[in-house]
Amino acid sequence: MILSDDFYEQIVKNLGLSVEEYTGPTGKRIAVGKMEASGYVEGPDDLSDMFASSSLHVTLTPWDGDGLKLESTEVEAELFSFVPPDSASTSGSPTPVPYFFEVLIPWSMRESVLPEGSTVLGKGIAFCSDTPGQTTA
Fold this sequence. Notes:
Elements: E1 2-3, H1 5-14, E2 29-35, E3 55-60, E4 73-79, E5 99-106, H2 110-113, H3 132-136
Parallel strand pairs: 1-5, 2-4
Antiparallel strand pairs: 2-5, 3-4
């Protein structure tokens, strides 16, 4: 999810993190990875973590409007237990799955994950994995 720089920085501060460490071209990225739960859930801590580690390297691969993969980018992501901002649903989203994984990117860094000339059409971007067994736990 690409957020305005101010909103992204607010999330960094709310999580008690260093703005310098989580912004800029080489900064770590904030991620949330949780499994769906059955029954009543009061907050993100009631959901099981999707990953065994608290940090991971993630390959982000955007898709174009024709369903073709574009140039990939690798980022270092730190996983946190919080509720990220809601995003608008996107058309052509993958089949629903029993987990939630999202990497937050500040607007000023959008060009580091989107190919040159890309246009952001919504406030949410979906990414899929060709090897979910390797990326989930």
